[in-house]
């Protein structure tokens, strides 16, 4: 009884909540709820509109050769394949550029490079598509010929080289260039937030600058690097115009990087096919959008799990 009374006496009363606090709290809750409502609305729309497309055949939808799954598998494969190739090229380059800006470059040069990286993230995808067609594709063609001649025994570089250079590998390079500014900007801010005491302690123990980065900066920013990479992957998965302009599509499943027979991507296929679609064909295209929605949601969920799993091992804690 005494303990209960003492606890009641020592318990501090809650301060009265002001009207402004209640208004701000309600506004923040409503804004956060709108994200879930919007996501649910998009998912419901895609599911309802996709049902006729998923069950369609070549008799009810003219864009199908047999059934929906035969149509969507090459597109889903091409979407994921191009995004993975782009990420393999973009992540090491982005981390290196972010490290140079945050830990190696002089202050003035670092500020200038930071502005350039931020500006690159704002370049429209159509511009990247034009650059890929007019500049990149002709420039990489001799490299493709060399790879095919000297490394044609490797499945990725086998087959007949495309005469235009508009291959899945060229599209992946364009995607990599597009996502590099996003990943670089996030990694740069994460590296700059590394506690100075951690870096100075490593240097005081005799570590070189690279050893300090490896022991202090990377452990602290590991989860942030994963988050930045997944954000770039999401951009690569959903990119439309640049891929549609660069890629020569044969709608096949192939891992060959240098041939003219390339798998398409879901966003580019929707952009190219939708203007002339009608009837059940529209439902088929919406169903492919549902597949892309599921793939993107799964990628982000896995990234969130990785970040949460590694957070306890991060130097941030």
Automatic annotation (TrEMBL):
CDD domains: TM_PBP2 (cd06261)
Record's subcellular location: Cell membrane
Transmembrane segments: 28-51, 71-101, 113-146, 166-187, 240-258, 278-303
Tagged with keyword Ribosomal protein: no
Matches recorded under SUPFAM superfamilies: MetI-like
Span of domain ABC transmembrane type-1: 76-303
Keyword Membrane applies: yes
UniProt similarity note: Belongs to the binding-protein-dependent transport system permease family. CysTW subfamily.
Role summary: Part of the binding-protein-dependent transport system for phosphate; probably responsible for the translocation of the substrate across the membrane.
Entry protein name: Phosphate transport system permease protein
Annotated organism of origin: Microbacterium memoriense
């Amino acid at each position: 009884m005494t303990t209960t009374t003492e606890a009641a006496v020592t318990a501090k009363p809650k301060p009265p909540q002001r009207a402004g606090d209640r208004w701000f709290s309600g506004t923040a809750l409503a804004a956060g709820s709108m994200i879930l409502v919007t996501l649910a609305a998009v998912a419901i729309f895609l599911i309802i509109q996709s049902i006729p497309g998923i069950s369609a055949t070549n008799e009810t939808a003219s864009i199908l050769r047999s059934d929906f799954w035969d149509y969507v598998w090459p597109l889903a494969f091409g979407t994921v394949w191009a995004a993975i190739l782009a990420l393999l090229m973009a992540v090491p380059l982005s981390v290196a550029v972010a490290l140079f800006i945050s830990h190696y470059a002089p202050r003035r040069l670092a500020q200038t490079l930071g502005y350039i990286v931020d500006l690159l993230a704002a370049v429209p995808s159509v511009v990247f598509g034009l650059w890929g067609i007019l500049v990149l594709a002709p420039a990489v063609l001799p490299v493709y010929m060399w790879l095919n001649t000297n490394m044609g025994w490797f499945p990725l570089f086998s087959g007949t080289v495309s005469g235009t250079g508009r291959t899945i590998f060229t599209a992946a390079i364009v995607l990599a260039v597009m996502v590099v500014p996003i990943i670089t900007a996030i990694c740069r801010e994460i590296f700059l937030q590394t506690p100075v005491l951690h870096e100075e302690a490593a240097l005081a123990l005799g570590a070189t600058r690279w050893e300090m980065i490896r022991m202090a900066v990377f452990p602290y920013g590991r989860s942030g690097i994963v988050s930045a990479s997944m954000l770039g992957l999401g951009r690569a998965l959903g990119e439309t115009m640049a891929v549609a302009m660069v890629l020569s599509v044969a709608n096949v499943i192939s891992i060959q990087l240098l041939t003219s027979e390339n798998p398409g991507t879901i966003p580019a296929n929707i952009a190219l096919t939708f203007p002339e679609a009608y009837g059940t064909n529209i439902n088929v295209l919406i169903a492919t959008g549902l597949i892309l929605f599921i793939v993107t949601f799964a990628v982000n969920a896995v990234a969130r799990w990785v970040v949460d799993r590694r957070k306890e091992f991060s130097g941030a804690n």
